[in-house]
Structures are given as C-alpha cells and as structure tokens.
Write a structure and sequence with these properties.
With about 190 residues, the chain is mainly α. It contains eleven helices and no strands.
C-alpha cells in the first residue's frame, strides 16, 4: 500500500471538512457518521483518524469553514450592491427565499448548526466557534438602530420554522410574512 503524499493528505482533509460542513448542515452532526462522511468523499474511516483526533474536532473545523463561507457570501453582497443597506436588503431577500430554505447544506451555518449547538452542551470548542460566527453575522446585519442580533434571530428562526414546515402553505407564509416584517419601514 502506498503512502499518501503530504499534499494529498491536505487535500483529503480539505475535502473532509467541506463535505462535513455541508452534511452537518443538512443532517445534523449526529445524522452523519464518520464512516458515511468518509465514504461520501471516497476515503476510508482510517483516513479520518489520520487527519482528525475526533469527530468533535471535525465539527469545530466544519463549523468554522461554514462561517468562512458565510463571510464570503456577505462580502459578495456588499460588492454586488455597492452600499451596505442595499446589500443587507438583498441578503434578507435571499435568506427568506424558498431556494435558501430548500438547500440547508449550502445555507447559513447559523441556522444549520443551531439545533446541534443547543443539544451538545459539552461541545465547548464548537460552541465558541458558533458564537463567534453568530456575532460576526449580527455585526454585518447591524444598523444604526440595533446591533443586528434581533435581525439574525428573526432570520434564523424564520428559516428554521420554514424548513420544519416545508411542503406546507405555512412554510411559504412564514417566509413571506417574515420578509414583509423585516423590510417594512420600521422592521426589526
């Protein structure tokens, strides 16, 4: 059996983190095993333990990567829309869309990891990564009127409820009514 080069090992790690970031948001951290994760990228479970000391370490890295992706998305909204207020409005439009609701694996990690963070009280490193990501998202959403936390809480709550009721009229109503409330002249 040939040994994997250092470059290949780094690429395998990157692929594992990217797959975990997506699959954890889709299925939850307990909804995907290490074996299933590694199989999804064509590697063995043994390869996992050469890269990560534990699944918790991978969860922390996957959450950090997901929030890095969110940072890039937010920056792209700023770039595409010129001024931050317009970018914030466009982000609200995207966030409260059926597209975002129906693609949790590539969606916001604030919503994607929320249930796991609430259920995993011992995951201190992951919780710190998550909290930092939420704070950065809130800072981006902030306005002169608030620090962004009410808007993030509203967006995340709405998308979680819309996903939980997907396929029903209520799901669409949640997206529409939250969008209307957030874009009203004196929204949250």
């Amino acid at each position: 059996m040939s040994r994997v080069s250092q470059a290949q090992a780094l690429e395998n790690r990157r692929r594992a983190v990217a797959a975990a970031s997506q699959l954890f948001r889709e299925r939850g951290v307990n909804g995907i095993s290490v074996a299933d994760l590694m199989k999804s990228i064509g590697l063995t479970t043994g390869g996992f333990y050469k890269q990560f000391p534990s699944k918790e370490a991978l969860i922390a890295e996957a959450a950090q990567a997901a929030f890095g992706d969110l940072d890039l998305l937010l920056a792209s909204f700023d770039t595409a829309h010129g001024d931050h207020d317009t970018a914030r409005g466009a982000l609200i439009d995207f966030y409260l869309s059926a597209e975002h609701r129906d693609q949790p694996g590539t969606g916001c990690p604030t919503a994607g990891f929320a249930g796991d963070m609430a259920r995993e009280p011992t995951a201190e490193e992951v919780r710190e990564t998550y909290a930092a990501g939420v704070q950065e998202f809130a800072a981006w959403m902030s306005t002169d009127a608030n620090d962004g936390l009410p808007m993030v809480a509203t967006l995340v709550g709405a998308i979680l409820l819309a996903r939980a009721t997907a396929g029903t009229e209520l799901s669409e109503k949640i997206l529409e009514s939250t969008h209307k409330a957030m874009t009203a002249p004196h929204g949250p």
